[in-house]
Predict the structure.
Amino acid sequence: MLFHYHFWTPLLEETERYYASQGFKTHLRIGKYKGDFVTFNPPLTWDDIRDKEILFRIIEMRKGIVNITFGFGKEIIFDHIGFLVEQSEHDQICEKAIKMEWKVNIDERRTFITTPYQFRIELQTHLDVIDYNQDEILIQQMVLNTRQTGLEEDLAFLFGKDQKLEIQVLTENQPVTIREVVITDPCIQNSQDPNGVKVMRTLRGKLAT
């Protein structure tokens, strides 16, 4: 199940504010402060931390089965998407990625697969990364822009199924990024986040206009 995406961005406060306005809750803020990694989680607000010299490694926001993370970057860069998988599925996907000669980095918390499409795929088997109290809220569809063809076929091979229902791929001479995310939440306001991702909602199984 597609559940996650991550960006590096200089627009940290703006990005957090945007997703908070869409009903997401800030779960975690970790940054390097005076040489050490420190948490600045809520109830701390940006008024408490804005003037400190913090190099944020990750800010994590959640709503239902949607998990969004971002960290500081000098420019906006799309880094990875994430899938929730069973352990058996995880192992099969990793075996297939290795056969494709894609780099696979497995640790006890999560697995990253480096694709040739200038972004990574995260495999997550731990369910504590989502909030079950709103389990009807999930990513229904995502539109990715790549600069080369083949991603749809590679995803179908990796996951053993057609991913077109979850992921649509555009191949244009534009930055590799997420163009659009459709979330099954009637409270979502159709708009664009500070990093250029168009966030849309679905109503009764259809895209809201």
In short: The first helix runs from residue 12 to 21. Helices lie at 12-21, 46-49, 87-99, 151-159. The two ends are 25 Å apart (CA to CA).
